[in-house]
Amino acid sequence: MKAYQIKDIKNFMGRLLGSDSFDSFLLAEASITTYNTFIIDGHIEKAFFTGDINDDNILPPYEFSEWKNMRSVCFDLIKGKRTPVGFKLVLHLKPELTAQILAQGEASVTMADIKSFVLNIKYDGSMLTCITATAFHTFLPDKTPDKLWDGYFTQFLSEKEILFDEG
Description:
Layout: E1 3-6, H1 9-18, E2 25-33, E3 37-41, E4 65-66, H2 67-78, E5 86-93, H3 95-104, E6 114-123, E7 128-136, H4 144-159, E8 164-166
Antiparallel strand pairs: 1-7, 1-8, 2-3, 2-4, 2-5, 5-6, 6-7
């Protein structure tokens, strides 16, 4: 687990909300405080997709909503002349990318052990911080997945030209 303090918040927000840079993530939850606090539970509600006479019985492929589908919703809540009081986003890397990261490393852990690579994005009105985490199905003493995820995310920020300080 690492903390990354974002140096250029405007650039980061442009990448997060105005481009496909973070479309490899799923939105687990969001809390955005502007003139109200808006809470979004990113869990897919499967009942919405089934039981209708016109139902094609096709369920979304993930447990959570894809960021690319939620980006505009969050953007609409954040945009305006005033800076948000704060927000917190919990994103999960898509499972197929998690599997790729594990395959590239020398981890003795498999996808059966890991629930998700998690990215917490927190803005408190003046500072924006990204914190990586790994969600496991059970306790594992092997920290290799954490190191692989931290390395991947550091490279991700660099490739997206997002300046940061590691905390």
